[in-house]
Structure formats: structure tokens, C-alpha cells
Amino acid sequence: MDKVLQTMIDNMPEKTGKSLSEWKKVLKSKSFAKHSEAVNFLKKEHNVTHGFANTIVALSKEENETPTDLVENQYKGKENLIPIYENLLAVVKEFGKDVTITPKKTSVSVIRKKQFALIKPATKTRIDLGLKLKDKPTTDRLGNSGPFGTMCTHRVKLSNVSEIDSELKKWLMESYQNAE
Question: pTM surpassing 0.70?
């Protein structure tokens, strides 16, 4: 750690009224989608200067989150969707040993050599499954990529395990085969 940062941490209790660990607890009790939201919260609600607020937020980020923690956080309050998520993983794992499951903050990427699927709990009652299917027309079920943008070409909205049927498995397999 460089000297300037260490000095800032050492001076934090005197300058801000709390130590770094105390600030981490304050931030952990809140939920911020963006770094800037947390910085603004500290500035407005606790009169912390921008420099200290930015440092506190940066050092409070959960660098140590495990893939399991990331998935658990995605499905907090949406536990009813976990069976859909687990069934999707079971399907793609059958495709081959070259499938990599990579949890991120808000979604799970499914990768071969390239990402071929994206699993995201979209609402409390629905998972959005993003697929990469070149030159495939959209249908009522196989919709456009929507919020996935260029990460995927198509999106399937899933609200029930029964929707993981042969048609969906075929699309997943096609996306997997395109990702070589």
C-alpha cells in the first residue's frame, strides 16, 4: 500500500469521525448499484469530503466475494428462481468439459471459447437467458436481446423450470456450438 493511501487511512478517524472498518460497516448496511451513489451518500449524509468518500468506497468493495457469494446475492429475494438457474447449469454442463460458468455481480456468463449464454435474474419471477445465435430470426419466445445489447443476440424469458424444454435445449446447444 502506498504511503499516501496509508496516511489517509490513518487520518480517517480524525478527519471523518470513523475508522475505515467502521465506514465499511456503514456501507455494508446499504445497497448501491454504482460507486458514485455510495460516494454521494457519504458526502451528503455524513459530510465526508470527496477524497475520503471515494477512498472509503473503493476500499469497501468486496474483492473477496466468491462465485457462490455472487450467485447468492443475485438471488436474494428471488430464491424461487434458483431451480431454474440450477437446471440451466445442469443442461450446459452436459455439453462438454470446455464449459466455464463465471458468476458476475448481476449475471452468470456461460463460456466455451466465447460466451454463449448469460443467465440473469431479471425480476422476482423471471430469469432472462441470453443466447448468441447468429442469423436466427426472433419469435414470440426467442426474443431480441433486449437489455443484453450486443452481449447476446437473443433472449428467452423463463418463469418456470418446465420452460427448459427440448426447444430451449436446442437453442442452448446451437449457441454453444457457435462459441468454438
Answer: no
